[in-house]
Design goal:
Length: 288
């Protein structure tokens, strides 16, 4: 056996810890996101409302009108009571409106007017007392869902050496390391009519200290293993919510060290050929 020296990464210390982030938030702009499609089948010559927003909400979004077939003449489209554009049979058009109240259509000629209106709708709610289910989703700063290990967990540069007495009475020097933890959550609410509103990303953050055996040349690594988010209404008229995010984190002190090992040089073995063909079965001749 020969002796070999290799460089490896050593774990000087490793702690698993629970972190809780909480926040009370007043929701000023809860948003309902919904895709709506309504079929048009109305008598020609009659101006008809095909969609209208709720009175208690402010809506905005993109309206697409398709004129499939009708009375041989144009279809006039009115948004918020004002003329928006005209379509011929087989045409479609989209327009984005910042304040959307209603969509009306009127086809010229005789017979029935057929088509559809699709709206990518966003609505700002003033009251949220009709939520049947509410949940919060872990996201990044832009509101995209993420996994716990993608969360921000940053180690600050400052370290402080402290004298600690262990339970066995031994005195040791440990380092106090500061960890900045930040999470973003989006709160979703499923309403009684089946629509879903959601908030913009809400930030929660805390700074905590951890005692580790972390000499000067070590690197501190922080990873979030699991995350559980809970949300509850405090008031539906303001409205106010309370968010709690429970995290399980691993914090390690890592460093490169030289280790001496005993071993021999490893060489590849010679491949053994294996016969996979079955043996020939001898069939005896007939006794004639």
């Amino acid at each position: 056996m020969e002796k070999h020296c290799i460089h490896v990464e050593k774990v000087f210390d490793w702690v698993a810890r629970s972190v809780k982030l909480t926040k009370k938030e007043t929701l000023t702009e809860p948003i309902v996101k919904n895709d709506i499609c309504v079929d048009i089948c109305i008598p020609c010559g009659k101006k008809t409302i095909v969609w209208s927003a709720e009175e208690s909400v402010q809506a905005f979004g993109t309206v697409t009108v398709v004129y499939e077939q009708g009375c041989g003449q144009k279809m006039d489209v009115f948004i918020n009571g004002e003329f928006a554009f005209s379509l011929q049979e087989g045409e479609s058009r989209s327009v984005t409106i910042s304040h959307l109240h209603d969509v009306q259509v009127e086809c010229e000629g005789n017979g029935m007017c057929v088509g559809r209106v699709c709206i990518q709708l966003h609505q700002q709610l003033h009251r949220m007392n009709d939520c049947e289910h509410i949940r919060c989703i872990l996201t990044d700063a832009c509101g995209q869902p993420i996994e716990p290990e993608q969360m921000t967990c940053r180690i600050l540069d400052e370290r402080q050496t402290v004298h600690v007495t262990l339970p066995n009475g031994k005195h040791v020097n440990l380092q106090r390391v500061y960890v900045l933890i930040e999470a973003f959550v989006v709160v979703q609410c499923i309403r009684k009519d089946g629509t879903v509103w959601e908030t913009r990303p809400i930030s929660l953050a805390t700074m905590e200290d951890v005692l580790l055996c972390a000499p000067a040349e070590t690197t501190i690594v922080c990873e979030t293993v699991t995350a559980d988010c809970k949300v509850a209404f405090l008031s539906t008229t303001c409205p106010q919510i309370f968010i709690s995010v429970q995290l399980c984190q691993h914090v390690q002190a890592l460093g490169r060290v030289k280790v001496e090992l005993e071993g021999t040089i490893c060489l590849p073995r010679v491949e053994q050929q294996v016969n996979i063909c079955p043996q020939h079965v001898h069939i005896p001749s007939c006794p004639i």
